[in-house]
TrEMBL record:
<dbReference type="Pfam" id="PF01053">
    <property type="entry name" value="Cys_Met_Meta_PP"/>
</dbReference>
<dbReference type="GO" id="GO:0030170">
    <property type="term" value="F:pyridoxal phosphate binding"/>
</dbReference>
<keyword id="KW-0663">Pyridoxal phosphate</keyword>
<dbReference type="GO" id="GO:0005737">
    <property type="term" value="C:cytoplasm"/>
</dbReference>
<dbReference type="GO" id="GO:0019343">
    <property type="term" value="P:cysteine biosynthetic process via cystathionine"/>
</dbReference>
<dbReference type="InterPro" id="IPR015424">
    <property type="entry name" value="PyrdxlP-dep_Trfase"/>
</dbReference>
<dbReference type="GO" id="GO:0004123">
    <property type="term" value="F:cystathionine gamma-lyase activity"/>
</dbReference>
<comment type="similarity">
    <text>Belongs to the trans-sulfuration enzymes family.</text>
</comment>
<dbReference type="InterPro" id="IPR000277">
    <property type="entry name" value="Cys/Met-Metab_PyrdxlP-dep_enz"/>
</dbReference>
<feature type="modified residue" description="N6-(pyridoxal phosphate)lysine">
    <location>
        <position position="196"/>
    </location>
</feature>
<dbReference type="GO" id="GO:0003962">
    <property type="term" value="F:cystathionine gamma-synthase activity"/>
</dbReference>
<dbReference type="InterPro" id="IPR015422">
    <property type="entry name" value="PyrdxlP-dep_Trfase_small"/>
</dbReference>
<dbReference type="InterPro" id="IPR015421">
    <property type="entry name" value="PyrdxlP-dep_Trfase_major"/>
</dbReference>
<dbReference type="InterPro" id="IPR054542">
    <property type="entry name" value="Cys_met_metab_PP"/>
</dbReference>
<dbReference type="GO" id="GO:0019346">
    <property type="term" value="P:transsulfuration"/>
</dbReference>
<protein>
    <submittedName>
        <fullName>Cystathionine gamma-synthase</fullName>
    </submittedName>
</protein>
Length: 381
């Protein structure tokens, strides 16, 4: 089955009793049993499994080409579940530019866990390999990164992790499986903030893991069941509905993202534009190799003045774009990473990686591109 068919039919069946084409919202915590320990059907209790969540999880596995999908109450709950595979003494190598909440989870929540985190430039493959030792258990990469649109070469990193028998996880939130399939490129686990493009309508907080190996998927399901960060039936329904139009939406996000990036590149008040589709983007070659069919809808830029005040004024003036956290919905959003999504990263660390105070991140939606560009024009003016 090809991708555009999979988003609609992958892992899906009509409902057995009524023939409902969309899986109903099985808004129930528990399922009747005929005798103790003998449920009527295959379900017992919704923390373990629920038919609506199962339909979503099967769709997730299908579109990411994995053996098992798991749906969580948020992207961070998914990442937290994955981290439960590791114990004191283990080491994790992560990319040095990550979503602020992921960085906070690694550096604050797991601070006293005894797990050691290294944050490195994943494009310096020699430097990264030097850190590997017998305690290294996981490599964690976000590509493209939030908000600086850095890329990591998934296939090259996978060659190294395979050689050393280390798990390799990729946060595929920005690219989506429409553009990039980490498991096909050699990764073991894909993570999503399904709040973003998978859900696609800014109406749900959700997360996902898709695992290539069935046994590892089952182990993670046990951890999810035992800790309980599962996605509810209604939210599962919403993400599943979102996935059915993922291919259509992402195409338009890519078209609009490219037009917005081109407009910003030529604007006299704009300094740097971070968009992997631009030929002068430092990781354009990696993008061409592993993001197939487009470069996404996320565009980040800075001001020639370098002034925080200019970024703030711009964000107060946008009208079609909404000033808000999050991304990946049909509507365009604008965000100030240093004051909003990435405020949990200490200031010196933010400066070191390039999240300056004049940096603005745009999630370019699927509206008419002319209206978006007019809006940017007036806000920049
Ligand atoms: C790239 C990326 N990964 C993970 C997350 C965390 O996901 P959630 O907000 O659904 O917990 C986010 C949220 O913005 C994100 O942008």
């Amino acid at each position: 089955m090809k991708f555009n068919t999979k988003v609609i039919h992958g892992g899906q069946h009509h409902e057995k009793v009524t023939g409902a084409v969309m899986p109903p919202v099985f808004q129930t915590s528990t399922f009747a049993q005929v005798s103790p320990g003998q449920p009527i059907g295959e379900y017992e209790y919704s923390r373990a499994a629920n038919p609506t969540r199962q339909a979503l999880e099967d769709a997730l596995a299908s579109i990411e080409n994995g053996a098992r999908g798991l749906a969580f109450s948020s992207g961070l709950a998914a990442t937290d579940c994955l981290l439960r595979l590791f114990k004191a003494g283990d080491e994790i190598i992560a990319m040095d530019d990550l979503y602020g909440g992921t960085y906070r989870l690694f550096t604050r929540l797991y601070k006293d866990s005894g797990i050691k985190f290294h944050f490195v430039d994943m494009n310096d493959l020699d430097g990264f390999q030097k850190l590997i030792n017998e305690n290294t258990k996981l490599v964690w990469v976000e590509t493209p990164t939030n908000p600086l649109m850095k890329l990591a070469d998934i296939a090259e990193i996978a060659k190294i992790t395979k050689k050393h028998n280390i798990l390799f996880a990729v946060d595929n939130t920005f690219a989506t499986p429409y553009l990039q399939k980490p498991l096909d490129l050699g990764a073991d686990i894909v993570m999503h903030s399904a709040t973003k493009y998978l859900g696609g309508h800014s109406d749900v907080i959700a997360g996902a893991l898709v695992i290539k190996d069935k046994a590892l998927g089952d182990e993670l399901h046990f951890k999810q069941f035992a800790t309980g960060g599962t996605l509810g039936p209604m939210d599962s329904f919403l993400v599943l509905r979102g996935i059915k139009t993922l291919h259509l939406r992402v195409q338009r996000h890519c078209e609009n993202g490219a037009k917005v990036a081109e407009f910003l590149k030529n604007h006299p008040k704009v300094d740097k534009v971070y968009y992997p589709g631009l030929e002068n983007h430092p990781f354009h070659d990696i993008a061409k190799k592993q993001m197939l069919g487009g470069f996404g809808g996320m565009v980040t830029f800075t001001f020639k003045s370098g002034a925080k005040a200019d970024a703030i004024k711009f964000l107060e003036k946008v009208q079609v774009f909404t000033l808000a956290e999050s991304l990946g919905g049909v509507e365009s959003l604008a965000n100030h990473p240093a004051l909003m999504t990435h405020a949990s990263i200490p200031e010196d660390k933010r400066k070191e990686i390039g999240i300056t105070d004049d940096l603005v991140r745009l999630s370019v939606g699927v509206e008419d591109a002319d209206d978006l560009i007019e809006d940017l024009k007036q806000a920049l003016a």
